[in-house]
Design brief:
Blueprint: H1 15-20, H2 35-43, H3 45-61, H4 71-80, H5 84-107, H6 110-125, E1 138-139, E2 142-143, H7 152-175, H8 179-192, H9 205-208, H10 215-230, H11 234-254, H12 272-281
Helix pairs in contact: 3-5, 5-6, 5-7, 7-8, 7-10, 8-10, 10-11, 10-12
């Protein structure tokens, strides 16, 4: 069997035709308007402690502005190899956004949570690059954001923004018309379509590796998740599935039965675990 076709061989024969015809459910989570679904979640005994802790954390974040990301902090990696001064606020922005989105959906309290969510969304959209300094292309000591790849965390950012639109898109459009289209356009162009652009796809080593490592399922899962949430053109969505399933098929074809990942056992969730997440989206 051709390794590129390994996963595709398990799919129904009309899988891509259904996508192209728009006969798929792209609502991956209950929308904000489905208050019954979110209220039901809060009544589950196994979720109560987690939800209480999440809301406590969100309350601490509510009046604190998004952490600042400095260009000089990004450049530190090229100068002396330092990563933490950029990466810490970068990850805090994304973790805080997730917490605030869940607080908004769980409580339904738009007056309390919507503006903090929007602050974080706009802050992330305004970032020059979502690619980590350690994964970027450089001109000497300076990054070249136009040549940054869709790395692990640019891909995760795409999925997170897609999830926010999936649950809150109608709310965003009500209070800030055009925001959903901005999220859609910037996310697809920065990430999902970037790896498929023949002019720059060579930079995405994880897309072309003959025997892929954990970057491949990690990036492909997040980019396909984002595409399902944000790509409104059924043919382009089908193209995304067909393109990203090929490298993941190679990963699955060569994946060891023991789940071994070259970067260590803690990376299982970012290797085989991402493969399972991708099949769940499919």
């Amino acid at each position: 069997m051709n390794p590129n076709d390994y996963l595709i061989s398990f799919l129904p024969q009309d899988f891509f035709q259904k996508i192209e015809a728009g006969r798929i459910n792209r609502q991956l989570f209950p929308p904000f308007s489905d208050r019954a679904a979110w209220e039901t979640l809060k009544t589950q005994p196994s979720k109560r402690t987690v939800i209480r802790e999440l809301l406590d954390e969100a309350e601490q974040l509510r009046t604190v502005p998004p952490p600042v990301l400095l260009y000089s902090s990004y450049c530190e990696y090229g100068i002396n190899g330092t990563r933490i001064n950029f990466e810490a606020p970068y990850f805090d922005r994304r973790n805080h956004l997730g917490t605030l989105v869940l607080a908004l959906c769980l409580t339904g309290d738009r007056d309390r949570w919507l503006m903090p969510v929007l602050d974080y969304l706009f802050a992330i959209l305004e970032e020059q690059s979502w690619c980590m300094p350690a994964h970027a292309r450089w001109n000497g000591a300076f990054p070249n954001p136009l040549r940054c790849q869709s790395d692990l965390f640019a891909s995760e950012t795409a999925a997170q923004l897609g999830a926010a639109v999936n649950v809150l898109g109608d709310v965003f459009e009500e209070v800030c018309p055009g925001l959903v289209e901005r999220i859609r356009t910037e996310t697809l162009e920065r990430t999902v379509r970037k790896a498929l652009d023949p002019a720059i796809s060579w930079m995405q080593f994880w897309f072309h590796s003959e025997v892929p490592g954990n970057w491949t399922p990690w990036c492909c899962y997040n980019l396909l998740f984002a595409a399902v949430c944000l790509e409104n053109d059924p043919q382009k969505l089908s193209d995304c599935f067909q393109a990203y399933l090929r490298p993941v098929s190679r990963f699955a074809y060569h994946y060891a039965d023991d789940g071994y990942c070259a970067e260590g056992p803690s990376y299982y969730s970012k290797a085989g675990g991402m493969l399972f997440k991708l099949t769940d989206v499919m």
